[in-house]
UniProtKB/TrEMBL annotation:
This is Crp/Fnr family transcriptional regulator. InterPro entries: cNMP-bd_dom (IPR000595), cNMP-bd_dom_sf (IPR018490), Env_Response_Regulators (IPR050397), HTH_CRP (IPR012318), RmlC-like_jellyroll (IPR014710), WH-like_DNA-bd_sf (IPR036388), WH_DNA-bd_sf (IPR036390). One of its GO terms (molecular function) is kinase activity. Residues 12-132 form the Cyclic nucleotide-binding domain. Keywords: DNA-binding, Kinase, Transcription, Transcription regulation, Transferase. PANTHER family: CRP FAMILY TRANSCRIPTIONAL REGULATORY PROTEIN, HTH-TYPE TRANSCRIPTIONAL REGULATOR ARCR. It comes from the Bacteria. One of its GO terms (cellular component) is cytosol. Residues 146-219 form the HTH crp-type domain. PROSITE patterns: CNMP_BINDING_3, HTH_CRP_2.
Amino acid sequence: MISKFTFNNQYLFNELPEHEKNLLLGAMRTKNYRKNEAIFTDGTKPNGIYYLNEGKIKKYKVDNDGREQIIYIYSSGEFFGYSAILSNESYGDTTSTLESSVISFISKESFLDILDQSSVLSRLLLKSLSHEFSVMANLIAVLSHRTVRERAALSLLILHDKYKTNDNPEEEVFISLSRVDLANMVGTARETLARIINDFKQESLIKSEGRKLKIIDFKQLIHIANFY
């Protein structure tokens, strides 16, 4: 059920034929990024696409009052920044690291050249863009019509999905997003979020270890999120 609110394009690389994979790998230039380091900003012209090897990236918009709204979080194995290249437009949002990350860059020229050679990559990108549009539409509807408590519950469920490790599904999942970023994802003030998080703890829905959060009662949190 949570899939209608989560977007993940890890399959892009995994489903490519070996030759196309090697073309992408050969074009990649890898760089280490510090926590809170910007990758690209809203309104700038794209000069390539990005692949997240390790870490977490937030995608967000800033309103006229300087308030940040996190739209999406990328995790390792995902490409990002390619929609602006394909539409030949400026970036429509800003991305920066949530933690120390390793990111590969593929220049616009190399990406378009590989795209010309690979019908499979073209098909997978179309699939990815269609899914991303559907997820964004669902999230906009939630932000517009749900209470802060409902949005907070949904955001925690989305984050659990983003922080879990596919290699070890039995491993405990801890959400290490800062309270500021979580508030920006929920779309509320930090103080309001703090009260809701405390309520969730009192109701034994989540627990904390330091600044990290872990979901305890998925069934009740899904009920609160109201996304059946």
